[in-house]
Amino acid sequence: MAAPFIDIDGLRAVRVDKDRRFQLSVPRFRLSSGDRVAIIGPSGSGKSTFVETVACARAPASAVRFLVRGRGQGGEAGAAMDVAEAWARGREDALTRLRSRTFGYVHQAGGLLAFLSVRANIALTQRLSGRSDPGLIEELGAALGIRALFASAPAQLSGGQRQRVAIARALAHRPLVVVADEPTASLDRRNAATVMRLLADAAASAGAALLVATHDEALAAEFGFTIIGMHDDPDHDGGPDGSPGRGDDSVQAVALTPFPAVRGDR
Amino acid sequence: MSGMRTAVWLGLRDLLHDRAGFATQVLALVAVLVPLLVLYSLRVGVIGSLVAQLSEDPRNRQIAVTRQGHFPPSFFDELRRDGRVGFVVGHASPIAREVAFTKAVQGVAPRAEGIVLGSGPGDPLLGRRLTAPGRFQAVLTRALATRLDAAVGDRVVLGALRTIDGRDEELALPLTVTGIMDPALWEGEGALLADETLAAVEQWRDGTAVPAFGWTGVESAVPFAYRNFRLYARDLPALRSLHLELTAGGLSVSAPRLKEFENIMGLNSALGLIFGIIATAGGIGFLLSFGATLWGNVERKRQALCVLRLHGLLRRDAALFPVAQAVAVVTIGWGLAWLLLAVAAEALNRSLAGSIRVDGAISRLDPHQLGIAFAATVAVGLLASTAAAWRVTRIEPGEGIHGL
């Protein structure tokens, strides 16, 4: 069995906002080629913190194991990087390169750059990862039905069109993992279903694993996602770094409980 | 390198996308630069023309000896090695300089008295077209040539008298006329001789033998020395320092036009101070306003920069985003300001040509001055972008996932 792209044990992430401190615990998490995982939970439950941390965009507070098997400079599968150690040692450039070659990101409202055309937005990930492939941009444009919009500016697009462009951009550099945070939150039900189907199909065609944070469990289930729920952990006693434990109202301790389908791989 | 190029490209694309903001920043720079450049060009033009006017006439750069002395050849050798000295040659005493010239023709020959001066290569009195006279050659002033009815190629005879042991002796030295001088440089009756010829004539008048010219006399017990000299500084700033140094060395010298030059330089310093104050105030104002604009632009583009950081733009490369924009604004603003300066300079030169008498343009900047002004503008632009660049480096990639 191939090694997972993402391999996490005992990860803890802390987020401090204006008026609250928030802690996330991830006992175990694995993501392998072809996996399609949805993180489900209400607003404020820690989905974004989880996604940001797993996607190497936020430093974990601690982790027993946090390995990401990324792509090398030439696009080949590279050796696993110890992400927790990289954060601890301040190897920020290495983490940035890992993100650019290994991950694709789909934002809630597209996250497109207003000053670039649709085509330039899609090509951006190729440019940043150093993997120019104009043919793939054409293929993605045709597959997602946005070929005619290549010369348009993002401001001229509808919400659904923006998400299709974001999906194309997320896949244009052939990432191993596509991460999407509430990709359908700004769309109506019909468009949400269309975008989710396009996202799932495009990621499957590219052989990329898909990790989606969403509050729409029904939609995730409809497209065959493995569901992982976020919930409060009543047994949380505070972390080893001295973070506040039970009884402190400013703390929301959250544990991530893998569903059997995911846990069964371990 | 690729990340740097990408950051620069993105910064420029953003600038072009936000055309109104771009134009506003460029015009703000132009509004500061044009008055400064016009002021600077006026200072350079007026002062430069006045100094050039003074420098052009070699007599303005002359240092004259007011009391005769004893100046051996080594004194002149040392002066000629000094970079501030444009030309120097020894003189005879004023009386010894007066000789008679006769045109060498059959019959009644025109005759005139005149003054002879030593000369040599680089003598400002020769102007640009005449060469220095050789041992048996002379360059005549226009007035003397007219009196003698002499032209280039004619032969004249230099005549001098001396008295030895109560006996009068006469010297007749034939010379070929090799040039007629510009009356603007010397309008009296006189001639330039080779340095060695003048020295020989003076030694002969002193009764000394001059074997090189076949002239007999007593053998001199002391080496020959001039009693006077004619010195021209290379330029006006050198005139001031040479005058100071020679005076400090105990020589009695005067530089008749030095005071005028110092007045101009005083005016230049005052204008420089005024310009410096205005330029500094304008520069600081532009630095702050442009810096604030770039900072505000980073804040407005924060989400886009978050996305770029998330998708793989390195922190240090991202910092080039506002720097590229600053350089673009400064370059285009400077180009526009330069065009407006050219228009303003043309208008000033036309309108003030009749009221201010200066040589050359009243408003002008040389290429190297334009280059310095451009470099200074770019430096201020880069300085203004440093705060915005630092702000970009504080943007975390994690901010770019949620809610965009």
Description:
The complex is a heterodimer of chains A (266) and B (404). With 266 residues, chain A is α/β, with parallel strands linked by helices. Chain A is built from nine helices and ten strands. Chain A has a ten-stranded mixed β-sheet, sandwiched between helices. In chain A, strand 4 and strand 5 (77-82) form a beta hairpin. Residues 236-253 and 257-266 of chain A have low confidence and may be disordered. With 404 residues, chain B is α+β, with helices and mostly antiparallel strands. Chain B contains eleven helices and ten strands. In chain B, strands 3-4-8-5-7-6 form a six-stranded mixed beta barrel. In chain B, a hairpin with a 7-residue loop joins strand 3 (98-103) and strand 4 (111-119). In chain B, helix 1 crosses helix 10 (320-352). Classes of the chains: A alpha/beta (266), B alpha+beta (404). The A-B interface holds A 48, 51-52, 55, 57-58, 92-93, 96-97, 99-101, 105, 107-111, 113-116, 120, 124-125, 127-130, 179, 181-182 and B 2-3, 6, 10, 13-14, 16-18, 303-304, 307-315, 396-398, 400-404. Chain A: Keywords: ATP-binding, Nucleotide-binding.
